[in-house]
Amino acid sequence: MLHTHVGLASGIVLAAVGLCFTTLIVGYTSTADPLSWSTFDNVLYFITTRQCFPLGLFMVFAVLLAGWLPALKTLLQHPYLRAIARLSYMIFLVHPILINIYL
């Protein structure tokens, strides 16, 4: 039974990562050259991006919370990633203050 959970969880995580990276990479051409896409393409991209990226993140978190991939959980608990998480959270908290001061 555990083997089927690992296979299912691996598939879900790969699909989730695919959703997240696709929404980030495909939109680069739209932001690099805004006139390269039609208005319909831009609207369709922004509508689907706002649902697919959080859906991909939710899929990864659901697999982690279910405990199906302990190796991924161990990897994400690495001390280096914790340090990066703390720094990025600190930047998230401080950046509005800096924007208000300097802009």
Concise account of the structure shown:
86% of the residues lie in helices and 0% in strands. The chain is mainly α.
Describe this structure in words.
The protein has 103 residues and is mainly α. It folds into two domains: 1-68; 70-103. The protein is built from five helices and no strands. Helix 1 packs antiparallel against helix 3 (39-66). The model has no long low-confidence stretch (mean pLDDT 81).
Q: How far from one another are the termini?
A: 57 Å
Q: Order of helices and strands, N to C?
A: HHHHH
Largest sheet: none
How large is the share of residues in beta strands? under 5%
The stretches of 5 or more residues where confidence is low (pLDDT under 50) are none
Count of distinct strands: 0
Cα shape: flat
Summing up helix and strand content along with how strands pair, one would put the structural category as mainly alpha
Count the DSSP helices.
Answer: 5
Helix content bin: over 70%
Kindly give the count of domains: 2
Mean pLDDT score, rounded? 81
Radius of gyration (CA) equals 18 Å
Q: What is this structure's SSE topology?
A:
Blueprint: H1 2-26, H2 28-32, H3 39-66, H4 70-76, H5 79-102
Features of this protein?
single chain, 103 residues, mainly alpha, 5 helices, 86% helix, flat
